[in-house]
């Protein structure tokens, strides 16, 4: 695996970024990245504008820790007291049980929401069918009303067309 080492580069007219002075060393061959390649990379790392040249750049690039645990600081003693171990075991068990309870509760809540969703979907379907039936009934009744308005002048006087009627008194008299 490649490892980063510091190496000096020729002086540059512009401020140089510290990462430009790093080169990749391959341990198996001991070869380093050629200086010509580093010189080509240097303008890319330098600030593009003179306004940015005044920005502070870290003067030292630290090497990443070789092991994750080294970065965590000094380790405690390898083994604690038996009481501490018992407390840890009890705490872990308690935490495990609490996590199971929480997952179970979350699952139950999701199941309840799903059931509620299904009920609402069924209710929605029933209501849509009822709306369809009521719409059809409205059309039928509207057509029946239009037909009735043509024949009945009482409800709609402007549709009244004087029709010759037999005399009501004459209809009551015996013939």
UniProtKB/TrEMBL annotation:
Keywords: Activator, DNA-binding, Nucleus, Repressor, Transcription, Transcription regulation. Pfam families: bZIP_1 (PF00170). The keyword DNA-binding applies. Residues 85-148 form the BZIP domain. One of its GO terms (cellular component) is nucleus. Residues 63-73 have a biased composition (Basic and acidic residues). Belongs to the bZIP family. This is Basic leucine zipper transcriptional factor ATF-like 3 isoform X1. It comes from Zalophus californianus (California sealion). The lineage of its organism: Eukaryota, Metazoa, Chordata, Craniata, Vertebrata.
């Amino acid at each position: 695996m490649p490892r980063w080492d510091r190496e000096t580069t020729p002086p540059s007219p512009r401020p140089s970024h510290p990462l430009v002075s790093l080169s990749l060393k391959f341990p198996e061959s001991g070869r380093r990245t050629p200086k010509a390649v580093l010189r080509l990379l240097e303008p890319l790392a330098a600030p593009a504008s003179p306004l940015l040249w005044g920005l502070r750049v870290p003067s030292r690039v630290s090497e990443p820790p070789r092991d994750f645990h080294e970065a965590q600081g000094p380790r405690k003693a390898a083994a604690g007291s038996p009481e501490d171990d018992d407390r840890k075991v009890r705490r872990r068990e308690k935490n495990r049980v609490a996590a199971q309870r929480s997952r179970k509760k979350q699952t139950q809540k999701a199941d309840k929401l799903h059931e509620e969703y299904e009920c609402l979907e069924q209710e929605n379907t029933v209501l849509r069918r009822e709306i369809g039936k009521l719409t059809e009934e409205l059309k039928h009744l509207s057509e029946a009303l239009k037909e009735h308005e043509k024949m009945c002048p009482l409800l709609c006087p402007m549709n009244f067309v004087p029709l010759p009627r037999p005399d009501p008194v004459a209809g009551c008299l015996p013939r």
